[in-house]
């Protein structure tokens, strides 16, 4: 097995596109266009800190592809944000929107920052500053941001407000994932996890599962991880392990997910739910050290379903041989490196790829954008039923192609996405149309 580490996340993403192109009926121009972003913008954001000092932050926005519609993709606040990472994430967004047949291209943005180190006022100032610096390259019909890691509805609300002030016109459709009371859409909060849940429900049906006999481990307990854990728990799945950046919890009998969500969101710790103490004292209440688990060990648990819902590159050439779960549902973007993906496919591990599994978020973002543009408000029932229908239909389309062509679900998802993007490229004409020898476009139509 090749054990070389890819030089960059973006190179890894390009490898996935190249591999899928071999299974797709696409013009080479489409693949060539998708190898480069359309526009990359980098800015410096000055923020006056609470202590009076000035700090300068680095921000970026990548408009990767807008062939099928305005670019669409989240904004990430994280110390490790880099242009290389954002280009990969933006390319995946273009493919994701095509998998779901949503009329958007792909974009992504971010700021290199540890948001946990900022006060609320500093965070607001940074969020508004990001929009001031990048207002000329985003817009409702150009590039539409949304939340991602360590950004949330409140931040989206500040950003939409700042953009509206710059344009001197209320413009909610510039950003999705806004608070429901600030022209957001109901049901966007759990849409990413819910979309992945609908994929799992299709698998449950295919395999005739009894949920209480199915064990699940979820890495990452933020927006997406909490939502899928909570929906599966409500269906009686045994969610035996969860984790966040500080570590994880394991309980063979299954964890109390609603209580953990409440504890995590109120105290920012997960173990507090059992005893209100820190981990060193947890033996007093039954949560002793044996119930804690590292992020690395969580990935290697012998569970039926593994859900990486944190960051990219968690399953790589280094740990793939120790992954025991027969089913991996990629709620995070890019949690499995292409090298690990090949190894998992060779072992017949079913991987539901990120560009399908986590597409629920952008799907409901599309509903929100459309609600803002039309002025017609959606009900929660509308959101859930349209999301369920779109996710299940995309899942079955990809799954059927994967079975019929004997390829992984990832290759099938990318192949379908490339064909949709290629159709739009071809509608404008490729070299097959513009080649000088034909001049077919100038010929009068033949009438019979
Ligand atoms: P979030 O900020 O709400 O939560 C991230 C979680 O991951 C937190 O619990 C954090 O503690 C945890 N985490 C961070 N580093 C970790 C590490 N090294 N190991 C384990 N856990 C770690 O973010 P989110 O919106 O839930 O996004 C999670 C993933 O889902 C990302 O890959 C994101 O790109 C993807 N995603 C999110 C959305 C969305 O709508 N929010 C949509 C599509 C994809």
For the structure shown, list the relevant keywords.
single chain; 448 residues; alpha/beta; seven-stranded mixed beta sheet; five-stranded mixed beta sheet; 16 helices; 12 strands; 43% helix; disordered N terminus; binds nicotinamide-adenine-dinucleotide
Brief write-up:
The protein is α/β, with parallel strands linked by helices and 448 residues long. It is built from 16 helices and twelve strands.
**Describe the biggest sheet?**
7 strands, mixed
Structure summary, number of beta strands: 12
Question: What is the residue-mean pLDDT, rounded to a whole number?
Answer: 91
Q: What amount of the residues lies in strands?
A: 15-25%
Unreliable runs, pLDDT <50, ≥5 residues?
1-6, 273-286
Hetero groups bound? nicotinamide-adenine-dinucleotide
Count every helix, treating DSSP H or I runs of 4 or more residues as helices.
16
Structural class: alpha/beta
Radius of gyration: 22 Å
Give the strand order, joined by hyphens, for the main sheet. Answer: 9-8-7-6-10-11-12
Task: List the SSEs and their pairings.
Elements lengths: L8 H13 L6 H7 L4 E10 L5 E12 L5 E8 L4 H17 L6 E7 L7 H15 L8 E5 L5 H15 L23 H17 L7 E5 L3 H12 L3 E7 L2 E4 L6 H11 L4 H4 L16 E2 L1 H5 L5 E4 L18 E3 L8 H9 L3 E3 L1 H4 L2 H15 L5 H26 L3 H20 L2 H4 L14
Parallel strand pairs: 3-4, 3-5, 6-7, 6-10, 10-11, 11-12
Antiparallel strand pairs: 1-2, 2-4, 7-8, 8-9
The protein binds nicotinamide-adenine-dinucleotide.
